[in-house]
Design brief:
heterodimer, A: 286 residues, mainly alpha, MetI-like fold, flat, B: 300 residues, 2 domains, two-stranded antiparallel sheet, 2 strands, disordered C terminus
Chain lengths: 286, 300
Amino acid sequence: MSNDFETAFKSRNKKIRKQMLSKVLLYIFFIVICAFFAGPFLWLLSTTFKSGENIYSMNLFTAHPTLTNYIGVIDFMNLPRILYNTTFITVAGTVLDIILAALCAYPLACMNFKGKGFIFGALTSTMIIPAAAGMIVNYLTVQKLQLVDKFGGVIIPGAVSVFSIILLRQAYLGIPRELIEAAKIDGASELKTWRKIMLPGVMPAISTLVIFNFISKWNAFLWPIIVLQDPQKYPLATALKYLGGQFNYKFGYVAAGTVISIIPVIIVFLLFQKNYINAVSGAIKG
Amino acid sequence: MRLDGVLKRRIRENLVAYAFMAPALIVLAVFVFYPIIYSIPLAFYDYSGIGESHYIGFDNFIKAFHDEEFWIAIRHSIQFVLVVPIIQILSILLATLVNKKLPGISIFRVLIYIPVVTSMIAVSIIWNWIFDEGGVLNAILMNIGLLKDPVLWLGDANLALFTLMFITIWQGLGYYMMLYLAGLQSLPPEMEEAAIIDGAGRIKTFIKIKIPLLKPYVWFCSLMSVISAVSVFDVVFAIKDDGGPDNATLVANLYSYRKAFVNFEFGYSAAVGVLVSIVILALSVFVFIYGRRGGMSNNE
């Protein structure tokens, strides 16, 4: 009897131990994978605290951490100015996108009008067509509008994205019809209904769009290079490209600049990652 | 009388609707629809941005066909499609792994995703530094004795394009992983349980049950991945904006960009853009047909 019990106990113990072992192995595996994806960032971060000839040393930690790279690059890049440029372009672009998309998506979700099917079809089709070809024509347009070397030329071509319109249309569809009818019976104008009922109803979607916009506009570098001629007007990512190109030997500066440019994005992403990831994976289901 | 009222209301509703949409539609018309339509006629002109332009028929296309660099660029863009199966297979495996219910798993998901939200410029600076001749990777490999001499990861004409592909994979995996994770989480859990009760192993369940159910996702992700591989530009522009060494990293969109914004041959560049779009369309159709035949759509 007791022997049976003992073997049963032993085999259960073995099973638990096996499960534990597989779990530990799994975690080790995950840590290796994450080192692969996040490691380069940590390494770069540690480099920014090294000075001079230690820059290519492989130690993750340095005995004499220094902030000279940060101080140097802030001065060299005229960072306050560059940060102002980046913030202006990002904020103005985001606000425009959300207002224009929120206005445009409302009739697409809640009104009947002629050409609705056509407009919706045309909008969704642009999501499939590759965007690269448009750059040349857009540059010529910006030139005609005399917006070359102006923030307007950077912001306006991307002032509204089809993605935002479609996401907000989806969100509007989730608002109960009765609310809109009730507002109409109360004699509210369409604009007032939109402002008082529809907008508050889609705030979660708007906050998702703020994050999307923030990340993509903060990171944008190509269009600003094309439109802006004066490096003093460059946003951060573009300025870094410029810095990396002309300043290859002073890697500490470049690394510090890179860290400064990444930090806001990573903070925003970490704070709102649930929202963000839901929207990314929602797009494929939609 | 009543009919009149209905008509009036309908007209009003149309007006209101278009008033709401007007600002967005104007921006989209000018900067999204116009470029798509106008880049086709532009391809038939020699336009340098300033001065007069002339209609020159198919000359731009003929010029492209006779330019060796054009063919090199197209070949490299098509070669870049090699990243598609690698990204898709690895991201499905990653998604399966992070789909486990373990404490702290969401931290892993987020860490894998961080390269996706990082700007290409930052990514290029980091990897340029790692792949540099005197950089970290060579130092490590030489230290552990795997290499005797430093390898020019980005400077060797035979390696540079593959190094850029590697960086693309590194940055893109997290994105596709999240899409597949959404797919996995939408599968009914009973399926897997039933298969396991029937005595199917985990690997067998994965191949026989999960992959077929994920087919619409695989199809969609592959299509997107093919489109972005052929139109690859950012990673090359950020790291090797001269397309070097020896044009080894010259891809089609970099060629087109160079013709427009370095040589100011806008008409010619537009023609190249049209040709690249045709290549993309052809490959997309191929993926689409292949997906159909392989039953990648679940709606049949």
